[in-house]
Design brief:
- This protein is α/β, with parallel strands linked by helices and 405 residues long.
- The chain is built from 13 helices and 17 strands.
- The strands form 3 sheets. Strands 10, 11, 12, 13, 14, 15, 16 and 17 form an 8-stranded mixed β-sheet that branches.
- β10 and β11 form a beta hairpin.
Length: 405
């Protein structure tokens, strides 16, 4: 580890963690400490990560214990604590004010965080700030089947509160359901509540269009609540497995235009701090971009920002460690291709009208797969990644049809 004044401490084990660890290593040459629940995933065996297996890693008391351990291990350094999954965020926020003095956790207070990530409350804030979102009906458990939906199908059904939803697993459980009829909606509602979920459900008008209508907006807000970075990505392909549906697979960055202004007003109006990530979809029926949710963290696909030339680790370090001022935010405009799957899978499942630009960006060197990092020389790690990447062929073949255009 190079002699830096800080140590990144990441919670999780997926591509989100690896991407941030790579960003820290590229910018500063540091080796990240990461705690995950299992000896698996893209972080396990990596040469750029000190990966530690920790049972019940997302419990508040375990988060505090692990952060305190790393703090004691590096008493003369600032410990930058980041959660890389929704299950870690509230656990981190629950401990704000309890961490050792050298631990920095760049998050809003727990009460504010819970209000933002709860979809029912988020849509109320969208109304307040003039952010477009899909037509929405908030369903409460006590309604039973005695309710009327104010829009026709297809419908999207999803939990208002994701963390407790996944605490009650069942065989047909999905991140979100796309349903054609009211009868299907009633069956899914019964399934979800029959397995123990108690919070509200969000039932929405389905916005037509494929993955290529999706956008992702990643932002960083400084300790002063001012936005420092905004980067919009045009999603060309997502995952379509039951638990992975909606996870990004291919993104091209693009200018954000008015979306930057709109979401900057929201973040600064709410005095938000740290990383944020918005899922947005273009609605061809009215030409509007409509927000689905905010994540109070960097997303799984965060390296689409770093790869485009805007290293996320640097924005955090310059704000929280070096305390550098930044009068105006960086609003990215350039185009860059990010792919987390094999190229052949991407070209097989992305509509052909995007292929020319994808190939042009590849030829120009404006392309990256975040998992293939030359400086991470661990052989076993690379062999495991190769095996995981090969599985993508089967996963897409079993969950998605190839486009006809």
């Amino acid at each position: 580890m190079k002699d830096q004044s800080f140590v990144p401490l990441l919670l999780g084990a997926d591509i989100n963690v690896y991407s941030m660890a790579r960003a820290f290593h590229e910018a500063y040459g540091v080796r990240t400490v990461a705690y995950g629940m299992y000896p698996s995933g893209p972080c396990y065996g990596s040469a750029i990560i000190d990966y530690r297996v920790s049972d019940k890693n997302d419990r508040p008391e375990k988060v505090l214990e692990n952060a305190s351990h790393v703090s004691a291990q590096f008493p003369d350094k600032t410990i930058l604590l980041l959660g890389c999954g929704d299950n870690y965020l509230t656990a981190i926020a629950d401990n704000l004010g309890k961490y050792p003095p050298n631990v920095v956790a760049p998050y809003v207070p727990l009460e504010q965080m819970e209000g933002l990530i709860h979809k029912e409350r988020f849509y109320a804030l969208c109304e307040q700030y003039g952010i477009d979102h899909p037509a929405t009906f908030v369903y409460k458990k006590e309604m039973g089947h005695d309710f009327d939906l104010p829009f026709p199908g297809p419908f999207v059904v999803k939990p208002a509160e994701s963390a407790t939803y996944w605490d009650h697993p069942f065989d047909t459980q999905k991140k979100a359901y796309v349903l054609q009829t009211r009868e299907e909606v009633d069956r899914v509602i019964d399934d979800i509540y029959g397995h123990g979920y108690e919070d509200s459900l969000i039932i929405q008008d389905f916005i037509p269009g494929g993955d290529e209508n999706m956008r992702v907006l990643t932002c960083y807000s400084g300790a002063d609540g001012k936005v420092r970075l905004m980067c919009l990505g045009h999603v060309l392909l997502e995952e379509h497995t039951r638990h992975g549906i909606g996870n990004h697979a291919v993104i091209i960055t693009e200018p954000g235009g008015e979306l930057y202004d709109t979401f900057r007003r929201f973040l600064e109006g709410e005095h938000f701090v740290g990383f944020s990530n918005f899922d947005i979809k273009f609605d061809p029926r009215d030409g509007k971009f409509k927000a689905f949710e905010i994540n109070c963290r960097q997303g799984r696909s965060n390296y689409y920002v770093t790869g485009a030339g805007y290293n996320l680790a640097k924005f955090l370090v310059e704000d929280r460690v070096e305390h550098k001022s930044q009068p105006e935010p960086v609003l990215t405009q350039n185009r860059h291709l990010w792919m987390a799957i094999p190229k052949k899978v991407a070209y097989d499942y992305i509509p052909k009208r995007f292929h020319e630009e994808m190939k042009a960006l590849e030829r120009a060197g404006a392309y990256v797969n975040p998992l293939w990092y030359a400086a991470d020389g661990a052989l076993i790690h690379k062999l495991r990644l190769y095996r995981i990447q090969r599985r993508q062929f089967g996963w897409y073949a079993s969950s998605m049809e190839k486009p006809k255009d």
